[in-house]
Amino acid sequence: MDAFCNSPIYQMDKAILEELFKKQLTPTPASVNISVDEVAWKKYHRYLTNAIDIDKKVLTWNAKGRKAEVLNKYYESVGKENCARIESVAMDGAKTYISSTKDYAVNALIVLDRFHATQKANNAADQVQRDELSKARKNEDEELVELTNCKQRFILLKNRSKLSDRQSATLTRLCEINQPIYKTLLLKENFPQTYFLNTVEEAKKHLQEWTEQALSSGLKPFIELAHSVAEKTQYILNWFIKKISSAISEGFNCKIKRLKRMAYGYRDVYYFRLKIHQHCGYLNPRRFHFI
Questions:
Q1: Handedness of CA 192, 197, 199, 203 (dihedral sign)
Q2: Which residues, in sequence order, are CB contacts of 111 under 8 Å at separation 6+?
Q3: 3-state SS, one letter per residue, for the chain
């Protein structure tokens, strides 16, 4: 990569992308409905924050970091008037993104959608399974170790309707011999059902009941999730007002990760950001008609 950074091809490509960026992305294109998420660009928690135009399905802005100050730069680059026109912002519920959005996009609905809600429940379930595996190893419980090891990890995370007969039997046995795993399965599957209810009132009641169950479960990962849900209930309920999804950000994150793998990593983060715009944003020749 060092040799490439000193090559004429790199210098020429970077100069062309910089010129296109100045012409087409300065100032940042305004959006009405956006999705905000982060993606790792380097080891040791080095992240990029990306803003996606949900309606046009195009990346409009990115920057290094994931603090509130980073997202502030996006809103500042869009301008005060355009910030006031933003109707909704889908995100994963990060406090930094929430505080920035509240300060700038004053009229926007902040939405924590089903995709990230399901992801958070799965993360909690995965942690419970890891904890139970650790206990089983200490207690030399060979059957439980066999049922909770890395080979079986995704059985608990998958939708039960998509499990094979063998996987279903494994999950059933796991729930029979381990109460925490059984509770985890119920909590994991029950949480996303909020988004399938008909009214805000039903969803609010369901969330309250789920939160009480999680708090009384004795499972630390779900207790922590329950506290987070209690703080962000309104953002979940906003989905019934504006049914947008931040799943589009995950799709773009996959493209960005593939781009990074193809280049075996990027040392020049500014150049990487330009390449992301070329592959996922307005610098992509196939998207010029949006401009």
A1: negative
A2: 88, 89, 90, 91, 235, 238, 239, 242, 244, 246
A3: CHHHHCCHHHHHHHHHHHHHHHHHCCCCCCCCEEEEEEEEEECCCEEEEEEEECCCCEEEEEEECCCHHHHHHHHHHHCHHHHHHCCEEECCCCHHHHHHHHHHCCCCEEECCHHHHHHHHHHHHHHHHHHHHHHHHHCCCHHHHHHHCHHHHHHCCCCHHHCCHHHHHHHHHHHHHCHHHHHHHHHHHHHHHHHHCCCHHHHHHHHHHHHHHHHCCCCHHHHHHHHHHHHCHHHHHHHHCCCCCCHHHHHHHHHHHHHHHHCCCCCCHHHHHHHHHHHHECCCHHHHHHC
Distance CA 5, CA 272 (A): 12
- What local confidence, expressed as pLDDT, does residue 291 receive? 43
pTM: 0.86
For residue 158, which of 211, 197, 112, 118 has the smallest C-alpha distance?
118
Read off the pLDDT of residues 8-38 as tens digits, 9 standing for 90 and up.
Answer: 888 899 999 999 999 999 999 999 999 999 9
pLDDT value at position 290?
Answer: 43
Q: Note the pLDDT of residue 217.
A: 96
Residue ranges of the chain whose pLDDT lies below 70? 1-6, 287-291
User: Which residues 6+ apart lie within 8 Å of 96 measured at CB?
Assistant: 66, 67, 68, 70, 71
pLDDT at 6: 64
The count of residues in the chain is 291
Give the pairing of strands 33-42 and 88-90. parallel
